[in-house]
Amino acid sequence: MFKTVTTRAARQFVQPSQTAGVARRYAHTPVAFDWKDPLGTNNMFTEDELAIAETAESYCQERMQPRVLEAYRHEDYDKKILEEMGELGLLGATIKGYGCAGVSSVASGLITRAVERVDSGYRSGMSVQSSLAMGGIEEFGTEEQKEKFLPGMAKGKILGCFGLTEPNHGSDPGSMETIAKPHPTKKGYYSLSGAKTWITNSPIADVFLVWAKLQETGKIRGFILERSECPPGTLSTPKIGDKNGLRASITGMIQMDEAPVAHEMMLPDIEGLRGPFSCLNSARYGISWGVIGALEDCIDRARTYALERKQFKGNPIAKYQLVQKKLADAATDAAYGIVAATQVGRLKDEGKAAPEMISMIKRQNCDRALVNSRILQEIFGGNAVSDEYHIGRHVANLFVTQTYEGQSDIHALILGRAITGIQAFV
Amino acid sequence: MFKTVTTRAARQFVQPSQTAGVARRYAHTPVAFDWKDPLGTNNMFTEDELAIAETAESYCQERMQPRVLEAYRHEDYDKKILEEMGELGLLGATIKGYGCAGVSSVASGLITRAVERVDSGYRSGMSVQSSLAMGGIEEFGTEEQKEKFLPGMAKGKILGCFGLTEPNHGSDPGSMETIAKPHPTKKGYYSLSGAKTWITNSPIADVFLVWAKLQETGKIRGFILERSECPPGTLSTPKIGDKNGLRASITGMIQMDEAPVAHEMMLPDIEGLRGPFSCLNSARYGISWGVIGALEDCIDRARTYALERKQFKGNPIAKYQLVQKKLADAATDAAYGIVAATQVGRLKDEGKAAPEMISMIKRQNCDRALVNSRILQEIFGGNAVSDEYHIGRHVANLFVTQTYEGQSDIHALILGRAITGIQAFV
Amino acid sequence: MFKTVTTRAARQFVQPSQTAGVARRYAHTPVAFDWKDPLGTNNMFTEDELAIAETAESYCQERMQPRVLEAYRHEDYDKKILEEMGELGLLGATIKGYGCAGVSSVASGLITRAVERVDSGYRSGMSVQSSLAMGGIEEFGTEEQKEKFLPGMAKGKILGCFGLTEPNHGSDPGSMETIAKPHPTKKGYYSLSGAKTWITNSPIADVFLVWAKLQETGKIRGFILERSECPPGTLSTPKIGDKNGLRASITGMIQMDEAPVAHEMMLPDIEGLRGPFSCLNSARYGISWGVIGALEDCIDRARTYALERKQFKGNPIAKYQLVQKKLADAATDAAYGIVAATQVGRLKDEGKAAPEMISMIKRQNCDRALVNSRILQEIFGGNAVSDEYHIGRHVANLFVTQTYEGQSDIHALILGRAITGIQAFV
Amino acid sequence: MFKTVTTRAARQFVQPSQTAGVARRYAHTPVAFDWKDPLGTNNMFTEDELAIAETAESYCQERMQPRVLEAYRHEDYDKKILEEMGELGLLGATIKGYGCAGVSSVASGLITRAVERVDSGYRSGMSVQSSLAMGGIEEFGTEEQKEKFLPGMAKGKILGCFGLTEPNHGSDPGSMETIAKPHPTKKGYYSLSGAKTWITNSPIADVFLVWAKLQETGKIRGFILERSECPPGTLSTPKIGDKNGLRASITGMIQMDEAPVAHEMMLPDIEGLRGPFSCLNSARYGISWGVIGALEDCIDRARTYALERKQFKGNPIAKYQLVQKKLADAATDAAYGIVAATQVGRLKDEGKAAPEMISMIKRQNCDRALVNSRILQEIFGGNAVSDEYHIGRHVANLFVTQTYEGQSDIHALILGRAITGIQAFV
């Protein structure tokens, strides 16, 4: 048997692969290292993708960045941001048709990274609109549902949110208590009752993709609830304030007390947790790009600070080995995060991305972004306590990204199960 | 200015990129997760590359693996291994011509990973032959030098080594003391004097690519020293034994006392540290692949152990959350390591790889392989102390890979310098 | 020579030490483990110390805890707290005489721990009053200075602060720019000019222990500046708001423009950085106790949450191995922190504590408190973002404690210098 | 209620504790920092304890250290070492009477630390003799058993070992399979059958404290098996070689096939796992001291290396910030480890040490010793691979100490259970 292997090898080596035909030139012509892109990942993107990234980046730096400090201080989300993004085509960008841009998963990742470079809260607001609300309708909705909602949502004129998590069931949505029963008075309608919490965008949303147990089957189904259809007292969406992080996004509850939803506003065909999990998967894919954007902003700011801050013999602290190591570590994790997310994005577009791959990059990129942002924050010394250096905000935000849509340990156990075949949730 | 950005974006979104044309299907057709390739990296390789990998893998598992335990115990390197590799075309595989296979940098990475999956020492032996000795001659040698040595080296009939490091100048080769002077008696010859240490393969080498300061210029130059040309007493290559790691490779010194080397055996044109650094760069690129192979073997063994080992209520310890987390962490770092190394390999073949990129992947992959192998070793509990579980050997080896060809901290400072523009070596 | 050793050993072993006379009983009578005091450290304290700790603890939990959430949200420090502390004898507690309690360093550490269990900001306010302002006057002041200020400060009627740090010289106070010159118009007075920043309590302080360079000598001297003595325009103490942490303490600048200070308000005899460094040393000693208090509060809250929060099969998440490990790690570091701080406290009272010892416990306890609080925060999952769980506040505070009064890396280099004899600040 | 607290506080503060009476002098008289004892722990020990430590230290450095390299290389344990220790009174040192020294638990910890400073394997050999074998007989044996064995064991003339762990039940001894039945032919005897593995000293032991299930009750009991009483074929103790660590200690199996043991050689009164766990507890206490000794040796060697090794501009690498931080971290963990172990030792002698306290210090000190030794090893760069620097040996040993007598994670779960009240072993 070993012979054949040898023989095949021989053939391979005699006819070298085409890629190998390219000469190794780099030793002779020194290539410059770009600290903003340490592993040359721009080389992995198409021209279109790079152009989209540039658009998003310009918008974010020029329009969003100036607003974020005040928004964060006062927990004050400007919902016009979603409209501006809609004008640029940044919402639901991977969806084909319905007024959406239909770009690659990698391009959408690059948009997400640009937004989160400014603030994870802004990215959360966008993710909910794009991946959770629009994505859910596009993937599981009827043609009528898509046509009714997607074009307005793509423009940022109709705002959506996604109601899965309940107060007592964070990591375990299967135990949800929200229920859909036949509406007691309105024919052709269900009535939704129950409470959802930690729902990004809920206080400003027009449309709620709510997951509830259908009384007649006991199965989880998805419903598109419209605020405009709800009589007073059936729907309330109080804001949750005094947050430790993501203060530039708006978070709230969805409290439903016999809120009416027409039969045709139930997502067809999809039952159980497969529906919401698929939406979350898309959102998590986006997070894995976004958090690297936030980390990259931390690197940039820490580097600048280290070059400008002088101590002792008038040397910039960038000359300290201990500072350089922090920068090197962070730059490495950021670059690795991008190559991994790109790889999964490519597989996603080829229909080859397993959900566990997304668990892996969501978990790892969030973890590494958080760890490194915290370490970079040390470079600012006592000054880090001032919010004008922005890094404290990123650190607080990144902690939240690590815990939502699957806390790091939950994803570890999802991966552990995939590796060992054994369930370790107890 | 912002307008234009909007306009360009509009164009991009109207004409979606081709990649994006592929439908997002994965949500509907569940894709299986392969714990041996968590990020689907096999999708990144060409068919040829995959076939080469399979050849290398089969050889390594069937022929090398059975030898390694005894070799490691007794620090006994079987130099026939290089000959066997030569027969399969695994030596100097990226070199085009001279009997070499001319494969892509990624293919050569895959070979390296297969070898180090067995043992880092075996990979070291190969790296020295391929990247340092053959690579140096190929890159900087004269046509005559190449024709004289490369074909025999490719076959593993002529063994090479690489003499740079000196006893007192590990991280700082610029201070080397080895000197090349006009030979006192042999015309047309230089005489080499000095000592090199920690030289893999030196005790068994036929050919020594030695770096020395040329007396007349004070500049560092490369010399191809042949054992067969050295009169008794001018060259000795004592083995260094009692090593804590890499015991399946052979390491030694090169002690030269007026060792003669013909003028035409000096590498032309290349002066200073650029030559040896370029060779080391190639070797480091290989290490960044190899160590992931070693880590993958640790994952495989730890997973198997965890599934077979039962404790307490008869459950396999793979059911423990603490065990699953270790496996998930390690699998993540291994997968990230492969995507990053692949990315750099592709850039390398396009002439776009900066040396700092290689510092980054060498450092990160070595660090993460070491950290994770150590954590996986804990899964074996007290049994880890037995060498038959192999993981202790990998752990000891991986520590060495982290320190050689640039200790982790040195590469951190190389990166720090590239990021900040400031030198922090003091 | 070896003989003597044997002989002495023999003697030792024949006459066993008295401590050894106590029988090892524990194996037979099982001793209960107290998770709130895992290493039985209460056994190290005197009855008086325990009683003082209880007083402080009761006050803090009953009076401070209810105020902290609102104070933190609105950056609103209630300066009556210092008065209340004064009534209980908690201010300047180690000082003997002048109306101070004269307790042991360990007792004062226990007070600090109780206060910071509520909030690091409250502890900062107290530290500044006790260790920096009162401690500086007590250690370096004239008898007149002590009698004038200490009794009122002990009662919390006179509030003090400590002005060392300047905007551009965080870790390097030797480069300070604040200067004391002969006052241009007031005889027997100096005029102070310059700016101090990140000064806890400055906006509410009555008395400012300010360090400045005396023009005539160029040496750093200490001055007791009184707000009531400053004509309009010579002293301003603007509050620094929008902080990322320590929001329940008040921080500001000290801007001096020819602020007058009488000659007799200069600290006598002490010149250079020895003075402020000695005060900081005392404050750092207190921090090393305080941060463990904050960590202990995190442990308590995380444990409670883990026992109450149920997921999946209705099990409390306290049953998860990954959760238990976090609690075990944190409890270990907290307990180790207390034994180490106690040891240094005892040495301090015996006059045997080297400053580097305090660098060590300040650094280690801050680092470990920070790391563990962050890990415990993960137990709260998404809920951690709500400030009502208090842990996010501790995390944000503890980051600041790690950076102020010597960032962790600075103390590492102080220790490194003490260990190697070589200075590595560049 | 709050009033009373205030009142008691008042009393406390009026009558300051005696310790507080000592003036705070340190600021004025600078105290020297001793890098070998960073937290001044020698101040915690009695004069007798210090003298015992010195005896042990002298013996270890002068007599053991010169033997260890060859012993480790060849897995060759010199059992005369136990005899030498016996002559010095170092064996079973906390036992009172029976020819033992009767020293304090802290003194015995200091002995252990001195031994492990040389090698963890040497300490293992001593621990087994002292804590497991002698300790078990002393704690649970009859007066006759004590008189028969302890005096000879104290002298190192009779060697003991401890047979608990079985091949398939590392962390879970409750499932043991070794059985004690009435001996088929010898009246008044039990017959022991079963296998124990990873038994330190078994190949050289004269006496085996073996734990087995008594057939008639199904309960675990302890038996003192003597090699001299076993007919051929009933007892074999093969050595386990080719270990990755602890190579200077001897490890083996105990294979019993109807090995005879007289009824009066069963430990009376003690049943179940309480017996072996109590012995292990004592051994673990010793380990918590020992590993810090090994770490301290690593610190010493790394410091020396860093001061002697020069790179780049001729500076010793001790000048590197990255090197200094490694030393500072390690010195901190070593010092903390000693204060914690001392605290538990004192409680142990007062009968106040809970087993979980020992889990805590065993786990933490082993973990930190291992982590830091590995980091210090990096300072040696490539040279670390040579066993003559000794640090590689410590690293390999310390990994084993982390896994034996309760792997780190097992102790984490023991602590987790004590903290939460919930069992997480599944």
From TrEMBL, chains A, B, C, D:
Pathway: Amino-acid metabolism; tryptophan metabolism; Amino-acid metabolism; lysine degradation. Its cofactor is FAD. Its main location: mitochondrion. Keywords: FAD, Flavoprotein, Mitochondrion, Oxidoreductase, Transit peptide. Residues 46-157 form the Acyl-CoA dehydrogenase/oxidase N-terminal domain. Residues 272-419 form the Acyl-CoA dehydrogenase/oxidase C-terminal domain. InterPro entries: Acyl-CoA_Oxase/DH_mid-dom, Acyl-CoA_Oxase/DH_mid-dom_sf, AcylCo_DH-like_C, AcylCo_DH/oxidase_C, AcylCoA_DH/ox_N, AcylCoA_DH/ox_N_sf, AcylCoA_DH/oxidase_NM_dom_sf, Glutaryl-CoA_DH_mitochondrial. This is glutaryl-CoA dehydrogenase (ETF).
